[in-house]
Amino acid sequence: MKRASGVGHLAPFLPGLRTLLEDPEVSEIMINGPANVWVERGGRLEPHEAPELTAAWLHRAAIHIGRPLGLDPAARPILDARLEDGSRVAICTPPASPEVAITSLLEDILEAARSTLASRQNILVSGGTGSGKTTLLNALIELLPEDERIVAIEDTLELRIDRANCLRFEAGATLSETPSRSATWCATRSATGPTTSSSAR
Questions:
Q1: Cα distances (Å, whole numbers) of residue 103 to 14, 33, 131
Q2: Angle at 97 between CA 109 and CA 84, to 5 degrees
Q3: pLDDT at 52
Q4: Strand partners for 92
Q5: Closest CA to 38 of 99, 103, 121
Q6: Cα end-to-end distance, the chain, whole Å
Q7: CA 81 to CA 17: how far, in whole Å?
Q8: CATH number of the domain at 7-169, please?
Q9: pTM more than 0.85
């Protein structure tokens, strides 16, 4: 994957955020729109005042990040980029969001997530509608070892999973809502080989 510029090169396009981009204690920067910035330090979120960060500057930043990847935010409103310093940046632009939103995840946090997944530990992703859960999950999926099987259960199929060994489920109707004349198929493998059974009512 081609990489966009490093975090340090984003400072000219994100006025008011230079100190955050250079702060080693900052683990994540969340831009929810013009002048709406939140920063994570030590696992705690706090607002950051950036009144000069306008919609025009955010649009320029999105283009600056997407261009080296050959991506146009206007044509592809949801982008996921890896910068030269290893940091990850997720971008969401209209019409996918009311304003340009940018979230950065620094390399040490990325390595912590990779290590957690490699050791088969759990990661809980929680947040309100539009907070970026799906974007974060798509980034985490890329960190999974290539030889691992992925089983995804979703309300709607939104995750981007480009793996051959992947099984996807979409949450649907309950058993009581299914037609009365339905067939249920079950495949099992015994010690002597595969067997297939079915039942219908």
A1: 12, 11, 10
A2: 35
A3: 93
A4: 78, 101
A5: 103
A6: 51
A7: 19
A8: 3.30.450.90
A9: no
What region does 70 belong to: left with phi over 0, alpha with psi -120 to 50, or beta? left
- One DSSP character per residue, 116-149 reads HHHTT--------TTSSHHHHHHHHHTTS-TTS-
Q: How far is CA 107 from CA 10, 38, 113, 144, 201, in A?
A: 15, 18, 10, 16, 55
- Classify residue 68 by its DSSP letter: G
Q: Are 91 and 76 in contact (CB under 8 A)?
A: no
Q: Are 29 and 17 in contact (CB under 8 A)?
A: yes
For the record, the structure tokens of 116 come out as 């957690």
CA distance 108 to 61: 23
Q: Report how far residue 174's alpha carbon sits from residue 191's, in angstroms, rounded to the nearest whole number.
A: 33
Number of C-beta neighbours around residue 143 at 10 A: 16
Q: Report residue 4 CA to chain centroid gap.
A: 17
pLDDT one-digit tens code per residue, 107-123: 666 677 778 888 888 88
